[in-house]
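Hi P.,

Sorry for the delay on this. The queue was packed all week, but I finally got your sequence through. Input first:
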Amino acid sequence: MGKIRFGISLLIGGIFSFIICFFDPMRVLISKGASMTSDYSIGAAFFYFFLIVLINGIIDRTNKRISLKPEELIIIFGMMAVACAIPTWGFALNLIPLLPGVYYYSDPSWKENFIPYINKMITVNNKDAINWFFEGLPKGYKIPWDKWILPLTLWFILIFSVYLLSILIMYFLSKRWLEEERLLYPLTTPPSELSKKENSFPPVMKNKIFYIGMLIPFIILSFYCLHVYFPSIPQMTLNKTYLIFRRTVGLNIRIAFEVIGLIYFVSLDVSLSLWLFFLLFTIQNGIFNITGIGKATPEPWAFSGIEAGYECMGAMFMMVLIILWQERNYLKNVFLDRRNIFYTILSIICFFIIVFWLKFAGLKFIHSFIFTIFAFLTFIGITRVVCQSGTPYARSGVVPAGMIINIFGTEKIGANGLTALGFTSPWACDLRTLVMTSSANFFALGERFKINFKKIILSSIITVIIGIFASFYSIIRTSYKYGGINLGGWQFTSYVPYTVKWVKEYIIHPYTFGKYEFSFFSIGAILYVILNIFRLRFLSFPIHPIGLTVAATIPIAFTWFSIFIGWLLKFLILKYGGQKLYKDLQPLFLGIIIGSFLTGGIWMLIDFITGQIPATHPVLGA
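Then the structure:
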């Protein structure tokens, strides 16, 4: 094994990180399609990585000296994975339209109950800058960057601190998760297999079953997309929703090939818990709906219902607290290790930068402090779920902003504090993807390929800086060129009004301590403990409690059926074919995963080149 050319890896990884963060939001906005960077599936990273591996294999055939080594490929993939968490639903596309949008979309009610409480320094409040952003730049005028410099600088300080702390937390936790708990990290399986070399190309790419797997999603999804271009081709239905419980609850049946492929590499008890608890939560919601049990509040981002959402959040917080308690001695040793003291101090600094930034935005110190703790407990919880369950689509049941409101009540938080909580939406609410989760997978790959963790930290930091600036520039430039109201993405249509609406509702209608909400939070926490005890006492207990933490969320509602199919296929293969057949079929399911994202990437390019609007949607996360 030769020495890793770290500089080359950083250069290539940085270039592709820029491509992802610059072009994906632009493509989403112009083609009005969905994103390949919007979820934990990191579809753009898989798409570009497969192309890199293919080109690298061809180069290796002609000149082995300049071809990339497996470790170098892993650094490139890890950087792209981190980049995927930044440009769209991870942060930037949520943030940029919000800064001028709170003024552009304002009505008399906003001006009375929201606008006065905004810290103007964190928004773009110049009239021309606002109007041109949404309506297009007048001929002969330039983008008013000077109006954006201050708010973007302030937001950069916040989000860089959030991302750096996220990376460092995973640095502290990863060794334990990898070496002692032996988490599977299913999302790292495809890049691991594609990075291996045997006569220039990965062994899996010499297996015919791998290509059969790739063809399955390619043929079916391409046929689906062709209907968009040629309506005479029969339309293929890949998802259908059935209304149950007197038409009050929708049960979505959807085929997501990438989910089926990934679930094959997940333990049966974990995958079983995801779809089983989803069905149980669906039954609960249905019963509540037809009996009239339930409560309607402005609770932000609780799209699956307050009851089920808080049950999931209770289970998630309990899971994280149990993990941290079990790892307390390990973490103490890691924090105080002389080799890590710099990272420990840096983590504390980042934490308090976030706290004081939120205080600057309008929250009181105690609320900022607790909110930050809640936010990172949520980040750790979702990261744990993705690393252990392999689900590429996940979200928390409720969000930290809602929990803070239900703990302290609106009067104690105040109108300025509630408004500041509204501005946490871009990075702490719609948690469809996180830098923490991508960096966790990056560390797992680093451990597998013996890459120094400090190099992974540096690579991730460089990616974060590139990603933030590339995303900011791309979105602002595209918006001024075409006019935000002419672009796609719900961030330019419903996102800003939705955010303002729930903040305004809390300002107008005071709420006290949420006894109702936290009763369900307690139920979720207790159920998690009971299931965890059962699992520890009875080794053959078939249900893992991790499903309780996310099963009632919209991403699982869209993917539960595909999770079920993946679980069922693995169950039948192990039952009737044993470990040998399971291992023999692994290339098939790897092919299904890669084929899904490759198909999504190919049609993404076709749509962008042809100008197809709205774009095709061949992959759930594309």
